[in-house]
Structure prediction request, 546 residues.
Amino acid sequence: MEKKSKLSILLNGIIKENPTFILVLGTCPTIAVTTQAFNGLGMGLCVTLVLMCSNIFISLLKKIIPDTVRIPCYIVVIAAFVTIVQFLLQAFLPDLNKSLGVFIPLIVVNCIILGRAEMFANKNSVIDSAMDGIGMGLGCTLALTLVGTIREIIGNGTWMGITLTANMITPFSLLILAPGGFFVFGLMIAVMNKLTKGGVKRKSFDCEGCPTASACQNKEGGCN
Amino acid sequence: MNKRNLIVSSAPHVVSPVNTSRIMLDVLIALVPAVAMATYVFGMRALLLTAVCAAACVAFEYAVEKILKRDVTISDLSAAVTGVILSLNLPANLPFWMAIVGAFIAIVLVKQLFGGMGQNFANPAITARVALFVGFATAMTNFPLPVAQQTADAITGATPLGLFAKGMVEELPSNAQMFFGTIGGSMGETSALALLIGGAYLLFKKVIEPTIPACFIGTVAVMAILTGNDPIFHVCAGGVMLGSIFMATDYVTSPITTKGKVIFGIGCGLLTMVIRLFASYPEGVSFAILIMNILTPHIDNLTIPALNGVPKEKKAKKGGDK
Prediction:
């Protein structure tokens, strides 16, 4: 992998390889918690914190973790940070903790975090991994906040809890229900594809960046 | 009438006068009685809503095709048909802007984003109705009473199915009222007679086959009898007539083979009655058709007719295993 500047690693996750809209990772919380912009923002920041910390730790431990059992090791590291985040939320933001509910513990299995651990942190330096974690996390935060904004304004007539149009026109409440999540998410991916001219280039998904590379290489049905 | 096999002989070919715009014009003609009946029962507001829906659908179709640089196909009338059918699915007093949101969902989201005419996976009008029904729950279930029954205090009222769901059986209108359509409800759902006239015209012009409507309506009637309810009430109430004649028979979203159509019709009828009798919504026709629309590709896969002259390999294999 060619050497990249720290800034380009950071910016990479925000637009060019936006984890939510381009890599399409972690879609479960994208659809489930974005009924309000604030929930999306909160979820995104939690993911950012966990992602940054787990990337740093996994990058530090990459020489020690045996390759055959690396996924359980990643999960233990990630779970530790998720537990810390949940305790922090319970202590300081109990309302947000309540509205995000089960999706906070589910960050453990969020594909963005496991995916970045596998694709980036276990083969890059600690500082690069931290930058990648922050960039990817911010990209995810922006995406969730954007989806939450669209859904909350149209579906509920409010934004961040502030009443905007709810008194003037009847909100189209379909958008804060589950189908609305799929509608907005699908349309956002379409818009991002249009803006980035067909999304990320296929090249960056070669075996080097593929999470299942070691399992599928030189095997029947594998890429190589 | 051998429709199963498409035989392309050598030239010269006879050019059939039947094309998309001819079929859609026939559907529009068949919808006239239903729109006329809705206008008679609910007043001019109903006709105006139909016009708004049709105009909005055509405008959205034109705009999207221009933006996406596709061929503009508004002259095939399919968008206008979608608009009229959508309006018949709405209560006559629905605000116009909500109807336009419905037209947007039907034409832009369901039809054009999936590739336009013939590519949509579900019926645009039914999807728009379901989206509006879930999104604007209050406005979409605020059904006006027929103009003749309105009083100073009561402009809206419960539909027959609403009364049925609440168990107020003694207040239900008579079966004659249900049949002629002088009852509350969505614009096109009320008059079974007007819809049957339109359906008969479509059958006469061979635009639709009777398989799906017959299976749909028949299943609803049988289910009603089996569960001890009045079959005539359940067939005339709600959207069964409108759905089975005009929406379940959509070419794009219903199975191709006769066997598939039978499965499709029975599935619609079963789901409708299950939702009416056991679910929390009083009416299930639109959900039933939408679910069966999604299952249509699988029904088609399961009912591919056997090819002539090809030995039945599967059966031979099964015999060999034994």
In short: Chain A is about 60% helix and 0% strand.
